## 1
Amino acid sequence: EVQLVESGGGLVQTGESLTLSCEASGFTFSAYSMSWFRQTPGQGLEWVAEIHFDNVRTFYEESVKGRFTISRDNAKSTLYLQMNSLKTNDTGRYYCATSFRAPDCRLSGAWCYPGQGTQVTVSS
């Protein structure tokens, strides 16, 4: 069974930082690309960042470029999202996702995101 357990969210003020973690199990973590998504109030699920399985190529949604950094530790099967200079519109529930095609997994496009997410709230 694929499990992705997100942690590290919290309540912060604008300009502050948070680091999210996602512990993965149930598949060969190092062989698959990983992403972070967020569910923002009143909106659907939004893709935030992606890191390829090669641990080299990364991609970011335009509004987080230069502020967020996605990384992974394949030895620990853990994905991270370092978030700096947080803004109020970064508020949302953050989910990690895998490109592994797990059966019966909740999907956003080709991404499987089975976890509960972690809440990030940024106050002004």
Note: The mean pLDDT is 95.
## 2
Amino acid sequence: QVQLVESGGGSVQAGGSLRLSCAASGHTYCMGWFRQAPGQEREGVAVIYRASGSTYYADSVKGRFTISQDNAKNSVYLLMNSLKPEDTAMYYCAVDSRGRALGWEREQKYNYWGQGTQVTVSS
């Protein structure tokens, strides 16, 4: 069983920055961030593979968002710079503890989810 604790959401003006944190208990093969805006499907934002440190990003956030990890704290972070109003969404931390062979952006890959943290970007 893996438990996740998210923090760091909030409201910011366009061009601003926020950092999301996700602390996990238990084994994690990879950890990702997803987001869901009202009326839209949940989409993958970024992922980090814990052992290799490899990272992948959605095209919409490349160059603006950075995912990183702190192995000692079993935590991952999402630094979001140059935020845009279209980044407004509920952000969810997700864990794959089994190493499922699915694309990182597939929700089915992940078997644990955080409660979500709201990010609101105003223009």
Note: The mean pLDDT is 96.
## 3
Amino acid sequence: QRKLVESGGGSVQAGGSLRLSCAVSQYDLGDVCMAWFRQSPGKEREAVARLYTGGMITTYPDSVKGRFTVSIDYAKNTLYLQMNGLKPEDSGTYYCAAHGGGCYTLLPTPFGYWGQGTQVNVSS
């Protein structure tokens, strides 16, 4: 059974850094669209990073561009999200997600596999 498990969340002050991990099991990551989403109370789930493993193509929304970096370690079957220059508005629950084939949207709809989430709190 395919499974995604996030870790690495925590509490940091504004300007700090965190690295999130998403361990993936029972899933060949050779041709997969993977993404990190975040959701805070009262807000919709939004993508903060996306990676297509077939071509190592990454996409970021303007809100995190230059601060967040998504990467993958195939040997460990693990997706990472390095977050630098964190701001209070980056707080929320962070989820990794995946769907087969190429990436074509930043919306959560086509992502069929989701982790349970990890909490990030950024204080001012």
Note: Residues 20 and 78 are 10 Å apart (CA to CA).
